[in-house]
From TrEMBL:
The keyword rRNA processing applies. This is Probable U3 small nucleolar RNA-associated protein 11. The gene is Utp11. Keywords: Nucleus, rRNA processing. It is found in: Nucleus, Nucleolus. Residues 7-17 have a biased composition (Basic residues). Coiled coil: none annotated.
C-alpha cells in the first residue's frame, strides 16, 4: 500500500468520540472513560497506603502514652465531645470592661473602699454575724472540776450576761455600777437584727470592692498587652485575677 493511499484513508477516517451516557443511568454516576482506569488505580493504591500507615501507627503505639486530650475529651451518646475550658471572665466583668473606662471603675472602687472604712468605724467589728463559731477554752486539772464546772462562776459574772461576747461586766463591776445600755429583751433583739443587717451590708460592699479591683487589673493588663515588647504569659487569667505576663526588659533613654 502506497503512502498516498494511506494518507487518503487516514483523512477519510472519523475521529473517535466517547459514547454519550444514557439519561436513564445518570443517577448511577458519571460514565467512566477508557483512560480513567489509571485514576482509579492511583486512588486505590493511595487509600491502601494510608490504611497500612494507620495500622503500623496503631501497632507501634505505646499503651502507657499520655496526652492531654485524654482528660479533656469524653464520649456522650456515642459522640466525641471535647470539654470546653472554664470561663476566665464573668459576664459582669466583661460588660464593665467593654462599656466603662478604667478611670470610672477605679473611681467606683475608691468610693466603695471609703464606705467600707466608714462602716467598720461604726461597727467596730463587734459580734460579727457569720464569722464562724466561737470557742472559749478553759483548762482544768481534774475530772471532778469538769463535772462541777460553771461558766458564770469562772467568768465572774451573772448567768444573764454569759451570752454577751463583749461588754460583759464582772460581779464587782455590777456592785459598783449599773448595767449601761438597753436591757429589755425585745429591744436587744431589735438591735441585734440591725447589727446583723449592717454586717451583711459591709460584707456586700467588701465583695463589690474586690470585684472592682479585679476588673481594674484586667483592663490595665489588656492595655499593657498593646505594647510591642516581647512578653511571656506566666499565669492564666481567672475570674478572681488577671493574667500575669513577664515583659522583656528594655532600657529607655
Amino acid at each position: 500500500m502506497s503512502a498516498a493511499f494511506r494518507k487518503a484513508a487516514k483523512a477519510r477516517q472519523r475521529p473517535h468520540r466517547e459514547r454519550a451516557q444514557p439519561a436513564a443511568r445518570t443517577k448511577l454516576g458519571l460514565l467512566e472513560k477508557k483512560k480513567d482506569y489509571r485514576l482509579r488505580a492511583h486512588d486505590y493504591h493511595k487509600k491502601q497506603n494510608a490504611l497500612r500507615a494507620l495500622q503500623k501507627k496503631a501497632l507501634d503505639k505505646n499503651p502507657d502514652e499520655f496526652y492531654f486530650k485524654m482528660i479533656r475529651a469524653q464520649v456522650k451518646d456515642g459522640v466525641h465531645v471535647i470539654k470546653q475550658p472554664k470561663n476566665e471572665v464573668t459576664p459582669e466583668q466583661m460588660k464593665l470592661m467593654r462599656t466603662q473606662d478604667i478611670k470610672y471603675v477605679e473611681m467606683k472602687r475608691v468610693s466603695e473602699a471609703k464606705k467600707i472604712e466608714r462602716l467598720k468605724a461604726e461597727l467596730h467589728l463587734l459580734d460579727a454575724a457569720g464569722s464562724g463559731p466561737r470557742r472559749h477554752l478553759f483548762f482544768v486539772d481534774t475530772e471532778r472540776e469538769v463535772q462541777e464546772f460553771d461558766i458564770a462562776t469562772r467568768l465572774d459574772t451573772v448567768p444573764e450576761l454569759v451570752d454577751r461576747v463583749y461588754n460583759r461586766p464582772t460581779i464587782a463591776t455590777l456592785q459598783r455600777e449599773t448595767v449601761k445600755g438597753p436591757t429589755d429583751p425585745a429591744h436587744l433583739k431589735k438591735l441585734a437584727q440591725q447589727r446583723k443587717n449592717q454586717y451583711d451590708l459591709l460584707r456586700q460592699r467588701i465583695e463589690r470592692e474586690k470585684a472592682m479591683f479585679v476588673i481594674t487589673q484586667k483592663i490595665q493588663t489588656r492595655k499593657d498587652l498593646l505594647d510591642k515588647t516581647h512578653k511571656v504569659k506566666v499565669k492564666k487569667e481567672t475570674t478572681t485575677g488577671p493574667a500575669i505576663y513577664k515583659f522583656k526588659f528594655q532600657r529607655k533613654r
